[in-house]
Design a protein that fits this description.
The chain has a single domain, classed as RelE-like (YaeB-like fold, 2-Layer Sandwich), CATH 3.30.2310. Helix content is 36%, strand content 28%. A four-stranded mixed sheet has the order 1-4-3-2. The longest helix has 18 residues. It is globular and about 40 Å long.
Length: 96
């Protein structure tokens, strides 16, 4: 089974850390660890299933994974690489 490389854009890194900080601000370390576990599991699946998540409704070149009711991840496929583009809050305005 083919495995795709995973890369993080600078925006993905920034928004991921911001999301973790927001979770920690409102809840506990356990919720941060649960979120990190969900991300690790998602990335593991994306390595072998690049079309795992549906296309984003706003930008067709991106695919959107809903991680939790509040948070989604968008990614794009570039040849043999899955680039994580950004994490965002589903409750706010966003371009994805």
């Amino acid at each position: 089974m083919k495995e795709y490389l995973i890369s993080w854009s600078p925006l993905a890194e920034e928004t991921y850390l911001k999301t973790l900080a927001q979770i920690l601000d409102k809840w506990t370390v356990k919720e941060v660890e649960d979120f990190e576990s969900k991300i690790e599991s998602l990335i593991k699946k994306l390595k072998t299933q690049k079309y795992l998540c549906p296309p984003s409704g706003k930008q067709i070149c991106l695919r959107r994974c809903v991680i939790a009711p509040q948070t989604s991840l968008v990614y794009q496929i570039k040849d043999n690489t899955i680039e994580l583009v950004a994490f965002f809050d589903n409750r706010g305005e966003h371009k994805y």
